[in-house]
Specification:
The protein is of the alpha+beta class. It is 41% helix and 24% strand. It is built from 15 helices and 17 strands. It has helices at 3-12, 29-33, 38-59, 85-105, 135-149, 157-162, 207-225, 236-254, 259-270, 278-281, 293-300, 302-307, 310-318, 403-406, 410-423; strands at residues 16-26, 65-68, 72-78, 111-125, 128-132, 153-156, 172-180, 188-194, 283-284, 327-331, 336-338, 347-352, 354-358, 364-369, 373-374, 389-392, 396-401. The strands form three sheets. Strands 1, 2, 3, 4, 5, 6, 7, 8 and 9 form a nine-stranded mixed beta sheet that branches. Strands 10-17-12-15 form a four-stranded antiparallel beta sheet. It has a four-stranded antiparallel beta sheet with strand order 11-16-13-14, with no helix packed on it. α7 (207-225) runs antiparallel to α8 (236-254).
């Protein structure tokens, strides 16, 4: 064997190891150091990494902290001889919780933490030991997603379910979603930790209220994500119901909204019916969100285009605060959504599915599909009554603005009056 071949053999050798990757990143590093002199930045970063090392060493003196690009750190927890996976995951998670506590107490600047359980392989490259594995990229992505979900730490399901307890702490591990990450082949079930002192939850919080919140949110996420192994399909209406209750409890505890809960409610508002592969693929986090309701009305309604003027365009596409009044509703195939001659209870927009309009003899007048509005005619006729029955011919997702809210927004009333006139 030539010396070159010998070097290649040495470089590619190695044994796979089970590890937990813990990756941190300081929040707002550029802003914090923008006005510092080089020596000030040096002292700030050295002190930051020294504090992280002390927190890590308090649990395990043998674990090294490797600085990454100044404001980040990489910590690799390797499985010890005869150590169970649960013990490995617990060691890493305890450190992550201590880092979060250090941020809460002001000992560390705001810092995000991502944890991932997986495998790596170590090899010699140019005389140095180098580690390889997808776990690094996944831990980094989890750390980045902390901002999106408003959480100080995120972990994959393997870490969360193997955690065995942190003495003196009332932590609760709760799913924040199953997410399909860019360039990854499979989705990740992502968890965070709620406990007094984290997520804006006061340390003196009522424990009963706290446990009710985490139980409700955990159950809500089961309905949102579904469970293929248990035969539980995603149920967005039930998830919204439970998430709304959980959000109300969180408001009672903290005086603010829980961002990860709001993210799921936001996702359902934009995608009110799960995609065909949602159970296996989960949420797809796209940089470009779905078009607003106003933009979709603008594009899809021929009557609205005819009625368009600058005031209407601004209300629909620019100042879209009115959209919050259109509440999501789910209706089953065969259900009457409105009934002829009834008093109006709102204006409807079909998000997905199909309905038919029927006359007083139950004869079909027309079919309405996604992107169509209905129910506005009753507000602009003399009788102030429904002029047709509308029946779901498939399961449908609709958005309804109530009569009370409809009348609060004069420009929207004008728009729908124009549409009603054009239809007559």
């Amino acid at each position: 064997m030539s010396s070159f071949e010998s070097d290649r053999s040495e470089e590619s050798s190695g044994i796979e190891k089970e590890v937990v990757i813990l990756m941190t990143d300081m929040v707002g590093y550029s802003h914090l150091t923008a006005h510092m002199r080089p020596n000030g930045i040096r002292d700030f970063i050295v002190d930051y990494h020294r504090t992280i090392q002390e927190i890590v060493a308090a649990e395990d003196e043998m674990v090294r902290v490797e600085p990454l690009a100044g404001d980040g750190a990489l910590i690799i927890y390797e499985k010890r001889a005869d150590e169970l996976e649960s013990a490995l995951c617990t060691r890493a998670t305890v450190t992550a919780l201590r880092l979060a506590d250090a941020v809460d107490s002001g000992l560390l600047p705001p810092t995000r933490v991502g944890l991932h359980f997986g495998e790596i392989i170590e090899a010699k490259l140019n005389g140095r030991s180098v580690k390889f594995g997808a776990s690094f990229a996944i831990a980094a992505r989890l750390e980045e997603l902390c901002d999106y979900f408003g959480s100080p730490l995120l972990m994959d399901q393997n870490v969360a379910l193997r955690y065995q307890g942190y003495k003196g702490c009332e932590e609760e591990f709760v799913s924040v979603g199953r997410v399909m990450l860019d360039s990854f082949a499979e989705p990740l079930q992502i968890y965070t930790v709620y406990k007094p002192g984290l997520h804006n939850i006061p340390k003196g919080v009522d424990r009963g209220l706290f446990r009710n919140f985490t139980a409700l949110k955990g159950e809500a996420m089961r309905y949102f994500c579904g469970e293929a192994t248990a035969g539980l399909a995603p149920d967005f209406p039930r998830a919204v119901e439970l998430l709304t209750e959980a959000q109300n409890l969180y408001m009672q505890m903290s005086g603010s909204t829980d961002r990860s809960t709001e993210r799921i409610l936001e996702y359902i508002r934009e995608t009110p019916a799960p995609d065909s592969d949602f159970l296996t693929s989960g949420m797809r986090l796209s940089k470009k969100g779905r078009e607003s309701l106003g933009a979709r009305l603008f594009h899809l309604s021929e009557e609205l285009l005819k009625a368009m003027n600058q005031e209407f365009y601004h209300a629909l596409v620019v100042d879209t605060a009115w959209e919050k009044y259109f509440k999501l509703e789910w209706r089953k195939m065969g259900e009457n959504i409105i009934t002829i001659n009834d008093s109006p209870d709102g204006v409807y927009f079909i998000d997905s599915g199909e309905v038919v309009t029927l006359n007083e003899h139950d004869e079909e007048i027309t079919t309405l599909t996604a992107g169509t509005i209905f129910g506005e005619m009753a507000y602009f006729n003399k009788e102030k009554r429904r002029t047709a029955t509308v029946r779901a011919t498939t399961d449908v997702v609709i958005r309804r603005i109530s009569s009370e809210d409809f009348e609060k927004i004069p420009v929207i009333v004008k728009i729908f009056e124009r549409i009603a006139m054009a239809r007559r």
